[in-house]
Amino acid sequence: MAPLGRPCCDFRMTSILTYTFKNLPSTSKWALRFSVRPLSCSSQLRATPAAQTKSKKTLAKPNIRNVVVVDGVRTPFLLSGTSYKDLMPHDVARAALLGLLHRTSVPKEVVDYIIFGTVIQEVKTSNVAREAALGAGFSDKTPAHTVTMACISANQAMTTGVGLIASGQCDVVVAGGVELMSDVPIRHSRKMRKMLLDLNKAKTLGQRLSLLSKFRLNFLSPELPAVAEFSTSETMGHSADRLAAAFAVSRTEQDEYALRSHSLAKKAQDEGLLSDVVPFKVPGKDTVTKDNGIRPSSLEQMAKLKPAFIKPYGTVTAANSSFLTDGASAMLIMAEEKALAMGYKPKAYLRDFVYVSQDPKDQLLLGPTYATPKVLEKAGLTLNDVDAFEFHEAFSGQILANFKAMDSDWFAQNYMGRKTKVGLPPLEKFNTWGGSLSLGHPFGATGCRLVMAAANRLRKEGGQYGLVAACAAGGQGHAMIVEAYPK
Amino acid sequence: MASRAIGSFRRFPASKTLRCPGYICRNFAGSSALLTRTHINYGVKGDVAVVRINSPNSKVNTLNKELQSEFVEVMNEIWASDQIRSAVLISSKPGCFIAGADINMLAACKTNQEVTQISQEGQRIFEKLEKSPKPIVAAISGSCLGGGLEVGVPAAFDMMLTGRNIHADRAKKMGLVDQLVEPLGPGLKPPEERTIEYLEEVAVTFAKGLADKKISPKRDKGLVDTFYLTELTSVAMGIPFVRQQIYKKVEEKVRKQTKGLYPAPLKIIDVVKTGIEQGSDAGYLSESQKFGELAMTKESKALIGLYHGQVLCKKNKFGAPQKEVKHLAILGAGLMGAGIAQVSVDKGLKTILKDATLAGLGRGQQQVFKGLNDKVKKKALTSFERDSIFSNLTGQLDYQGFEKADMVIEAVFEDLSLKHRVLKEVEAVIPDHCVFASNTSALPINEISAVSKRPEKVIGMHYFSPVDKMQLLEIITTEKTSKDTTASAVAVGLKQGKVIIVVKDGPGFYTTRCLAPMMSEVIRILQEGVDPKKLDSLTTSFGFPVGAATLVDEVGVDVARHVAEDLGKAFGERFGGGSLDLLKQMVSKGFLGRKSGKGFYIYQEGVKSKNLNSDMDSILASLKIPPKSEVSSDEDIQYRLVTRFVNEAVMCLQEGILATPAEGDIGAVFGLGFPPCLGGPFRFVDLYGAQKIVDRLRKYEAAYGKQFTPCQLLVDHANSPNKKFYQ
User: Fold this and answer.
1) Do residue A230 and residue B194 have CB atoms under 8 angstroms apart?
2) Which of A416, B99, B172, B192 has its CA 20 to 30 A from that of A57?
């Protein structure tokens, strides 16, 4: 109980309770419970105030294994319909896995488990993690599963891995994500599918003919997957536009933010900072070496675009939204002692994380606002402690609406049950190497990119804590603390 | 021509036919107000004037006299100002633009001329708005009805006639509106507030665009255009012969729908005709005059009376109950039980539906699902909303969870011993505060509550079938029912969207008791040899929505028999007339009405036209009685039915079953289909004259005896012409 320090806030009782549980001698049960159900207990780790001001503490927890990121890579993120357009999702995922193997030289047989996130599933490879792993030459004895949680699918893959390691079930996990928007499953209509299935079962010619006689031309109209909420039927862009309007975010502000993202991404690319990108020799095409969606434009050019969703007066346009992207990412995470035993110099610790969810209609994209204070409080940090913010940029309007929500006492009091506002992340620490608006956003793969960007920025700039946050369809959100591994 | 950015139209019981002036506007914090007025104000944003409408001390904005002059003033200023190039009209009230004419203002008018004058003043403004040299954008959020809609819209035929409520996206499709603004969620202020602000921003941009000629005011071709403005139609309308044919067709259709009982739609056709044939000035003049005439008709008074009655019956005069009902349980998953469940779950009440058998329960659950799914088909709900609403329903065969119930509504068969059994079973499992409500149409509540350990918690809630369509709920209190129990029942009923009357206990309560003597007369008339089809047409042409014979089929012959028997015992000869044997024989032959496929008519799935059930001929022949020629004219037949109804209703007031005449009128119109154009039995006595009704009753009394003896209260009203149910 030593690190508990002086109890000085509302968390006192819960902390004590939590620690009591965690100190139970049972090997894994409680620990597992902690790591997979982070929302249910508030784990408060408070150093004494004096220690806090002198030097930053580490976020290690007693009796819980430290989980580290050895390294992570991604394929270049490409506008969909470009170089990856003839591939299948597991091809791109395999490229990321091969890149990771090359980068880390990890022996395939030490990998205990593989988890990938994806959103729009290719029906032939519904467990894309397994297909990609087999193709990449991982042992057929290494199990793999696929998770889906909209734009935070890769985050879910990583935190699932964290849970497996922290609970002692695994030592080495590969987590990643993939999305291929160049090809999406377009289905026959339900009526057509029903007829085809019934035809399968029909035994006589008469039965077949009678089924066929029911055919109508409208059976042929296909069903397209939409980036729309199932519960509300509203497309995400439409919701983002309403969100921007609710927070009075202007078109100009949105265009300016998008321009910032593209400019910073361009700079990072030119300076070679995007070291997580690995080249990918696409069969039948040239080797792809860099992201192709980074296109800094001018405000005048951007102002000419018409609104994409709410016409004619909306503010969300193609230029201030993230674009449909193909790409994959992969990351090697290990128990700290395992990584050290294998001689690795890890890049970062994966620390506290939270998942949040709220109204999928009117607060669809406000996940970061809700998740940020929660994860900071869980880790015993404040906004000021964070050196690198990496937020997922779905739309400029969404980022700016989140900023306004985080900066509003009224919103905090009326919707978050907080006394005061969350506070505004300083822009000079925020997505300084670009973001989803400019680098691209393959839904299932973005989470790993965010974590690697935070880890690499901390290494480069010498900070200690990174905060990753993202919103996702379904009105969900996620945040995680990344702590730089001491050099 | 003006354009508008709009939110949503909502239900409001004022009809488009009330065309009246007067606008209510108010200042807006933040914009630079040029002038401060009591009700209307406007600010200027750039070169756009923003006129704000806000009736003080009222939830809705209505068009009334006082505010008219202020509106004219403001508009004149806007037209005169050099700095202003366009204007936006907007309401400061979330959810209401202008709900129509102020009914009280119309009711206060004593003569046609007064109303005509009001109408003319309104027309002048509308005309000016229409011809405005500066673009005017109406930013509408919420209900916009009657005169409110005319702020910038040239009148649309279809809407004028039916006073329909149109949903926002439909309005856009019809071409009534140009742009839709979707409501916003939470931001830096309450969502409603920010939505109006946003609506205004969009409207201002629009107005600017129109003034700068960057946006063309031309609308998508919608239904309105196809009716009014498309080239083809206007060419066709240019040919007098075609025009005459169109007038004729419309008139025919209207006559068929209204049976000539509602004068307004026909006058509207007249007005439109005048406008087209003789030019708009003549049209406007004719409109204001006809409007004046209409406002003075009995029908207008009857309908306005119903409106006020309905407003009254949408309030809980018993105050807030001590404990809000959050968990509801319904016993019996039959037609009524499932119907009650449907109107409860879709208002967010957690509801248990319990039945004795899995098959019965399944049927009830399916009924609820179908009711919700039909709304999905009509796009009133999304499939997701349907699913989450349906999740509020728990179907079960046991009493699990009843320990949490705040109210139990039983809707089991109309059998006293069965009701006693479930009451005792339920009381063993429910908490102390739980209300036990019985849904019965005739069994006296005090007989049901006789076996209760806590009669103060027992109450009657009489729903009408189909529950999701019929607006009325009749709540029955016994002498032992506590006030809090009543408050609780009314609160639940209001939540279910019902119009509620609260009556005292007694055989048949109010509604069933009024209906029974009329039904008895229906049987006698049939026995006298009047064809059911003829009888149906006589009743519908009097204004009843459903013919009398059809009504028996719809209610169910067995139910009608039950009620006739029970009430016959309770009230004796007065409820006599037709022979109960007719119903008994029908029941024995299985002619139970629509539910069994046969009654007076034959009902077949998918067959719309109704054919008479020829097997009824022998039954009717065997019970035939000779008609009395002095009281058997068509009119006499109609009045024999109506006067028995009215006499019984007045007797209910006399005996204190009813608390107020208004509740009597609402109950009769909304529960039993008493002709709305007559305003209900009490309004009918006032408008038609008590003396004339008593005279008729005496005439029928002479022919048939006691069943037509006018009750004392009615006689009192006839004797002193100043006595009115509505002063």
Assistant:
1) no
2) A416
Where do we find the tokens 């004593």? B110
Per-residue pLDDT band at A103 (split at 50, 70, 90): very high
Please tell me whether residue B362 adopts helix, strand or coil conformation. helix
Strand, coil or helix: B327: strand
Q: Which residues pair with B663 in a beta bridge?
A: none
- Contact at CB, B187 and A404, closer than 8 angstroms: yes
Q: What is the DSSP letter of B422?
A: H
Please judge whether A411 and B185 are an interchain contact, meaning their C-beta atoms are less than 8 angstroms apart.
no
* A397-450 per-position pLDDT tens digit: 999 999 999 999 999 999 999 999 999 999 999 999 999 999 999 999 999 999
Distances (CA, A) of A65 to A61, A68, A78, A323: 8, 10, 37, 38
Closest Cα in chain B, distance from residue A61 (Å): 37
Length of chain A equals 487
Q: For residue A287, what are the β-bridge partners?
A: A281
Give me the catalytic one of B150, B474, B521, B648. B474
CA-based nearest distance B179→chain A, Å: 9
pLDDT tens sequence across B370-398: 999 999 998 888 888 899 999 999 999 99
The rounded distance, in Å, linking the Cα atoms of B473 and B71 is: 42
Neighbouring C-beta atoms of residue A304, cutoff 10 Å: 10
Scanning B547-606 for CB atoms below 8 A from A yields none
Answer whether B30 touches A (CB < 8 Å): no
> Which of A347, A350, A316 has its CA nearest to residue A478?
A350
For chain B, give the number of residues: 727
Residue from the list A245, A359, A414 with its beta carbon closest to the beta carbon of B198: A245
Using 70 as the pLDDT threshold, list the residues of chain B that sit under it. 1-38, 95, 99-101, 141-178, 216-243, 246, 260
**Continuous segment of H or E residues that includes residue B583:** helix B580-588
Residue A151 is a catalytic residue = yes
CA-CA distance, B419 to B448, in Å (whole number)?
Answer: 7
Report the distance separating Cα B435 and Cα B477, nearest Å.
Answer: 12
Probe site for chain B from A241, A362, A363 (most B CB atoms < 10 A): A362
CB A116 within 8 A of CB A443: no
A258 with A394: CB under 8 angstroms? no
- B404 vs chain A: nearest CA distance in angstroms? 27
Nearest CA in chain A to B192: A246
CA dihedral B222, B224, B225, B227 (to 10 degrees): 130
Q: Which residues pair with A325 in a beta bridge?
A: A79
Can you give the three-state secondary structure of chain A, one letter per residue? CHHHCCCCCCCHHHHHHHHHHHCCCCCCHHHHHHHHCCCCCCCCCCCCHHHHHHCCCCCCCCCCCCEEEEEEEECCCEECCCCCCCCCHHHHHHHHHHHHHHHHCCCHHHCCEEEEECCCCCHHHCCHHHHHHHHCCCCCCCCEEEECECECHHHHHHHHHHHHHHCCCCCEEEEEEEEECCCCCCECCHHHHHHHHHHHHCCCHHHHHHHHCCCCHHHHCCECCCCECCCCCCEHHHHHHHHHHHCCCCHHHHHHHHHHHHHHHHHHHHCCCCCCECCEECCCCCEECCCCCCCCCCHHHHHCCCCCCCCCCCCCCHHHECCEEEEEEEEEEEEHHHHHHCCCCCCEEEEEEEEEECCCCCCCCCHHHHHHHHHHHHHCCCHHHCCEEEECCCEHHHHHHHHHHHCCHHHHHHHCCCCCCCCCCCHHHECECECHHHHCECCCCHHHHHHHHHHHHHHHHCCCEEEEEEEECCCEEEEEEEEECCC
Q: Is B159 exposed, middle or buried (0-12, 13-18, 19+ CB in 10 A)?
A: buried
Burial of B281 (0-12, 13-18, 19+ CB in 10 A): exposed
